[in-house]
Structures are given as structure tokens and as C-alpha cells.
Amino acid sequence: MVTHELKTPLTPIRGYCEMLRMPNLMGTLNNEQLQSIKEIEENAKRLEILIGDVLDAQKLDMNQMSFKKSEISTDEFMDTIFKNAVHMMKDKNIDFVNNSEKHSIIADRDRLTQVMNNVISNAVDFVPKEHGRIEMGTKKEGSKVIFYVKDNGIGIPNDKQDELFKKFYQVDTTATRKHGGTGLGLTICKGIVEGLGGEIWVESELGKGTTFYFSLLESDGK
């Protein structure tokens, strides 16, 4: 596929960046040169994510996305998500909270991580620069485990909320114009969650914030 061919050049780009950092090969670089290498690496990573989104959307369209399911303890899973994101939150002065309960589900860990990271990334883009707050957690409702990510960002208009999970749709804000993206992230999240037998939805109020939810069956609730 063409998208696989687009992804291939990223490996040597990253490799050459690593080589440029080696003093024995290139000598000692100044701060401006190091910053240029960092920008190349960041844009290569961004391109990899964009291509990955296109690949995943293609798999969903063709009903070819596969899932490697296993039993997952939600408290352990969410703790890993928290630890991987907490340093970024501190750098951005965002109060990051994990309020997860212990439940058991059957799901694809990597795909579930993809959903959480995508929703958290969206929240990061929309919280205020000062006093930003993101809370994530899990709770049980009947036979289902509810995952949620709540922020105190700008909120989403009621007439736009149903559009969020449509392919290529992006709410037109300063944040989306700044950070770009494919407009595929939430579409992919919806496809993954539904592929795991769950559902995903959003609740939001302008000026107060947004909460994304998704539900999966508890493993002993089948």
C-alpha cells in the first residue's frame, strides 16, 4: 500500500538524526544545530502518527483491523497510562489526576492504549494554559466498565458534538489550527471501541469543559 511506502523513509531520517548527535562522527554541535535536529525528529514523529492514522482508518473501512484480546486490570492499565503522560503534563503545567477503580475487562491492550492516548492528547490541546486540569478514571455501571477523560477546557458546542466522530472532522478552534492533524483520531477511537464491543460518546459544555466516555463489558459481566 502507498501508506506503507510513505512510512519507510522515516526510519533512516531518525537514524541520521541520531548519527548527527554523535560527537565522534560530526563533532560537537551548537545549540542551534541541536534544536534543528530536535525539530526534524518531532516532525518525523508527527508524520509517523499521521500516516498511522491513515493506515488505521483504511483498516477500519475494509473491516481488516484485528484485535489481540487479553484480560486487563483497569487500575494497572490506567496507572501505566498515567505514568507515561504525567511528565508531559508537568511540563505543560496541567493538573493530571487518575481516579481509576479496579475492574477486569477483555480487550486489546495496545488498541486501548491508542484510544486513551488520543483522547488525552485532545484534552491537552484544549485546556487553558494556566490552571489546566485533566482527570481520567474508570467506574462500573451495571455490567460495564466506563472509562472517562475529563478536562476544564473551552468545551464543544452542542451542534458540533455529533460530528466529532465523523471522518476528517475537526472543531475549528485556535487549538486545532495550531496542532493540525488528520481529523481521523476520534473516528479511529470509535472504530476501536466498537470493534471491542463497546461504545464511545462525549458530554461537553461551552466554557466549562468536555468529558469523553467509552464503555466495555466487565470480563465477568458477559
Key attributes of the depicted protein:
9 helices; alpha+beta; 7 strands; globular; 5-stranded mixed β-sheet; two-stranded antiparallel ribbon; 23% strand; 2 domains; Heat Shock Protein 90; 222 residues
What is the structure about, briefly put?
It is built from 9 helices and 7 strands.
Structure description:
This protein is α+β, with helices and mostly antiparallel strands. It has two domains: 2-61; 69-221, Histidine kinase-like ATPase, C-terminal domain (Heat Shock Protein 90), CATH 3.30.565.10. Helix content is 49%, strand content 23%. The chain contains nine helices and seven strands. The protein has helices at residues 2-7, 10-20, 23-26, 31-61, 74-91, 109-126, 158-161, 174-179, 185-195; strands at residues 69-73, 94-100, 104-108, 132-141, 144-151, 199-205, 209-217. Strands 2-4-5-7-6 form a five-stranded mixed beta sheet. Strand 6 (199-205) and strand 7 form a beta hairpin. Helix 2 (10-20) packs antiparallel against helix 4 (31-61), helix 4 (31-61) crosses helix 9 (185-195) and helix 6 (109-126) packs antiparallel against helix 9 (185-195). The longest helix has 31 residues, at 31-61. It is globular and about 60 Å long. The model has no long low-confidence stretch (mean pLDDT 88).
- Distance linking N and C termini: 38 Å
And the CATH topology of the largest domain? Heat Shock Protein 90
Total helices: the number is 9
Largest sheet: 5 strands, mixed
Percent of residues in beta strands? 15-25%
CATH architecture of the largest domain: 2-Layer Sandwich
> What is the topology, as strand order, of the major beta sheet?
2-4-5-7-6
CATH class of the largest domain: Alpha Beta
Low-confidence segments, ≥5 residues, pLDDT <50? Answer: none
Q: Approximately how much helix is present in the residues?
A: 40-55%
Rg is: 19 Å
Element string (H = helix, E = strand)? HHHHEHEEHEEHHHEE
Number of strands: 7
Which structural class do you get from the secondary structure elements?
alpha+beta
- Taken together, the total number of domains comes to 2
Q: Which overall shape is indicated by the principal axes computed on the Cα atoms?
A: globular
